[in-house]
Amino acid sequence: MRAFFVFALLLSLTLAATLYPHGAGVDTNTLDKGDDNVSQVVNFAVRFLGNDYTTLSINNNGLVNTGNTPFTAYTPTGFSTLNVPSIGVYWADVDTRTAGDVTYRVTTDATFLATLTADLIATGNYAPATIDTLNKALVITWNLVGYYNRHNDKLNTFQLVITTNNQQQTFILFQYERLEWTTGDASGGSNGLGGTLPSVGYTNGMNPPIYVDLTRDTASDTGIPPLTLISNTNYINPVAGEYVFRVDRPLTCCDVTPSRLENVPTSG
User: What does pTM read for this prediction?
Assistant: First the structure.
């Protein structure tokens, strides 16, 4: 099952969501400069789509999967093809050899978690009484990253936050500040566009998989997905480029085929 919308034919989009603090002096880890790199396995116990996991693996290409067997594909073939539970904030062929960094941290800082809890409530997607006290978060930021092969003429900045409270509730936040490219050279792209477009969403990785795929379409398209322009939050004035989902419960339906991204489910 899948939720998707047709890519709009858009020009380069910049300056949308304000990301949580990241980078030097904030994040404790940085992926090596390169292409298709994967971090060391991160110890982060979390309940995801009905199952409990103790470790996560971060892929340079905008994909995080459960367990200690990293998924390294650079061409985004869609979440129906993945056989491991995964989250894709912007699955595409990132290349940081000439531009950008991928940084991350696991935090239990009470001030940050209080801010994160307040932000979840402020989205309007969840009643305050339905969110228990968060006790940790994994914050991963792709900052001004280029695309394969060593291109830095177009840059993307986006962030994934995974937060939980003792593995009972799990929320993920996708935030997009700047999107200028979609595709690396090895995925059919030309000057960062066209070819196989990014995948954004998540999957339980089962056989058959149940998944939410926010940006896949069967038609050929060279447009940048309008992720910086819209949101699935219920603010009176939604923050463009911000998306939040509760993902601890099993995913049972996502075949809503919305015409606009903000209509996709905010819960499994």
Answer: 0.88
